[in-house]
């Protein structure tokens, strides 16, 4: 099962026949010391091409070892976050077994997590922890690192969600090589429409997805040394535009604001420059530099230790020589009593000579110790200078961002003041115009008032005449309504007679459809029902009313 899963994850074809052949003569089984490791190296690891999902491979290894080694005590991070810390440990650990992460890399990781959480780095607290760590061991194992981060010792005051987001951000940068990510608008190549996409920048590719969950991938922009990025002016109602030019096609992108636009342009240009130079991603290059610095310091320390051992060996040899000479002098004193004076004189001379040499060796040893102390002091000063330069670089970056923001704010305020001055001038001119119009209106009011009074008198007279005509029409309407009621009664009587006649005819002669004469003139409809007069009579009445109106005027 383990071999099959390894082959699946590593994209290697599984050969069950080779597995059976390999373990056929092994009575102890595939988990024996001499059984599985040769098979793993020969039939699985040697066939790996590198085109496998490293995250899935890490997850499988995590499944094999987490349950046995993960601490049972409650942690402030979830199992998924613990897995990501474990993968980061494998990236930052030293290249020797058993794997450990040295204090310098622990400090680097904790600083990255603290920056991602938006908190301040506690250097003094870490120095105390580093001193306590160096007294007991060289570094931490993966499970000790998970306990350290999960205990919240360096993330006090932060909730679980903030710590989880920080771990995910560092995991994306160090493991997934995510240099930058965020939402932007992309212009289509066929329909030319703008669609919001989640962009992810990696060392040699830009992938864009429907959303930040990375489930629905829409396409890739492959980067190489021939690519370039340039800013575009605003057009088609879109702002903060820039263009990514590749060999086969170009991509128009719209950022949310000018700051994001500049950040993306700088990040993509930096990535293209690294591809042209053949350099690794920034975090991998920084890790390699830290490792080379540690190796250099370790080599210098080993060289100093070697020199100290050589001095100690030389001193021991001198001590042995002195002891040999002393024994020879004692033997010579026993063999030749007659040469005692000469031997004593020779012994004194030899002692003086060796004493001088011993003093000289002591001075050389003291000088070497002073050199060792000086080298240690220079090393501490160098490390302190490196930390000061890193802090100064961060401060310079923050100052540059503040200056850019201040310039943008100043330009915005200046434009606002100019617009307010223009609006104030326009309003002042408009008020003066209104004032002149008001004066003209006041002058015209008196004349119009007299004219309106005359018109009112004329309209009152016309209204009285119209009221009289209206009363006359009301009388005529009542008379017409009475005539209509009489005609209506006559029609009902005639209809009743006709109906009885139709029934009789139908009873005696069968179904007969009588042809009835229609109305010769179209009926007029009033607000009270059918009119009692024809259209000609209505026209006559209108002429009469118009004549009366003309006579009254």
Automatic annotation (TrEMBL):
Quaternary state and interactors: The SWAP complex consists of NPM1, NCL, PARP1 and SWAP70.
SMART domains for this protein: PH (SM00233)
GO cellular component term of the entry, any: nucleus
One of the record's GO molecular function terms: DNA binding
Signal peptide: none
SUPFAM superfamilies the record matches: PH domain-like (SSF50729)
Ranges where the PH domain occurs: 177-273
InterPro entries (UniProt xref): EF-hand_SWAP70_N, PH-like_dom_sf, PH_domain, PH_SWAP70
Role, per record: Phosphatidylinositol 3,4,5-trisphosphate-dependent guanine nucleotide exchange factor (GEF) which, independently of RAS, transduces signals from tyrosine kinase receptors to RAC. It also mediates signaling of membrane ruffling. Regulates the actin cytoskeleton as an effector or adapter protein in response to agonist stimulated phosphatidylinositol (3,4)-bisphosphate production and cell protrusion.
Species annotation: Sula dactylatra
Residues forming coiled coils: 283-504
Main subcellular location: membrane
Protein's name according to its UniProt entry: Switch-associated protein 70
Keyword tags: Cell membrane, Cell projection, Coiled coil, Cytoplasm, DNA-binding, Membrane, Nucleus, Phosphoprotein
Subcellular localization: Cell membrane; Cell projection, Lamellipodium; Cytoplasm; Nucleus
Family annotation (PANTHER family): SWAP-70 RECOMBINASE, SWITCH-ASSOCIATED PROTEIN 70
